[in-house]
Amino acid sequence: MQRTLQGHYVSVSTVGEEAQAFVPAPLPPNPPIAWTPALRNKFDEALLMLGRLDSVSVLLPDTSLLLYMYIRKEAVLSSMIEGTQSSLSDLLLFELDETPGVPLNDVQEVSNYVAAFHHGLKRLSDGFPISLRLIKEVHGLLLAKGRGQDQAPGDFRRSQNWIGGTSPQNAAFVPPPPELILDCMGKLELFLHDQPESTPVLLKAALAHVQFETIHPFLDGNGRLGRLLITLLLCSQKVLREPMLYLSLYFKTHRQRYYELLNIVRVKGDWEAWLDFFADAVIVTAKQAVETAQNLLDLSHADGVKIKSLGRVSASVLQVHRALMERPIATSKGLVEKIGLTPATVNKSLRHLEQLGIVDEMTAQKRNRLFQYRAYVAVINQGTERMS
């Protein structure tokens, strides 16, 4: 459905140039969303897939084994959209104080994302609502170290920004001027709290994501925070018990269409086209997450059978195997500290895992050797190949 312009333009002057900045109208859209049978069916399917994904988190013997890697995968993918070249393996090496194969600033950005996400989840679990305060806190951690630390972490911007182009005049999009940010974000906060009307959570997440990206309230990190906000919203309203839905892979794969639709919403008010795309993203991503969880469980079971064939030593080898399921790149020293077994027992267990073809040594060092659960990393890694 095409509406009129979803906001209004104001004249701004920045870097010596005049430009037209776009100020979005508050949510929800007016007139309301036109729910065709096809769009309604697609949203119903998306909710069904979210329910299936949520049930997987209940059936898993230990959800934390998956979540550790899932959150890091999302951090890598969301940062890739912004141009970083860190892989999942690079991040895991960085967290072990090893040298990754890409610039440290790239990996630091991804590491910041993990810290920001964990903080948001912790605040929600403590009963704190999604609010401007929480959004600022999460942003503060997102840009705490590395390239973004001079971009006012945790504070709404006080200067004009623009997206694309070399100046405001040839930019693809110019967000609201800084003096209107607080008003725009305040109205978005009201919408998140079901004012002026209650909005179903999946629809709320879809609409709020566009609004946040349009306001672009920070100097940097808006894209990553806008994507992170989707999962935080779904968790805050108990649609997902665990943060297992990450849309960055879908947005990365279809990024040209993604950016086109954001602009189509602003200029033509075609929210329905965006909602159709968003529902597809949820359906595809949730299915992939269910398949990944099943593949990892199958791999764990198959490798567990191999380990049990070792007989008497299998108990200690299984402990090392379980630790590698949570952190599939690890040092022998780190495994000793995590599991509490002696260095000799851990090293013998690692040798058994190597002989079974489950683990590979990544270094040739005699001390503090580095090991990788290669098949496990390969399953998680799907979609995180570096972008050219």
Structural overview:
The protein has 388 residues and is mainly alpha-helical. It has 2 domains: 285 residues, Fido-like domain (Fic-like fold, Orthogonal Bundle), CATH 1.10.3290.10; 72 residues, Arc Repressor Mutant, subunit A (Orthogonal Bundle), CATH 1.10.10. It has 15 helices and 5 strands. Strands 3-5-4 form a 3-stranded antiparallel sheet, with helices on both faces. A two-stranded antiparallel sheet has the order 1-2. A hairpin with an 8-residue loop joins strand 4 and strand 5. Helix 3 crosses helix 4, helix 4 runs antiparallel to helix 5 and helix 11 runs antiparallel to helix 15.
Topology:
Layout: E1 7-14, E2 17-24, H1 37-59, H2 63-81, H3 88-95, H4 104-125, H5 132-142, H6 181-192, H7 201-215, H8 222-236, H9 248-253, H10 255-268, H11 271-308, H12 314-326, E3 329-331, H13 332-339, H14 343-355, E4 360-361, E5 370-372, H15 374-381
Antiparallel strand pairs: 1-2, 3-5, 4-5
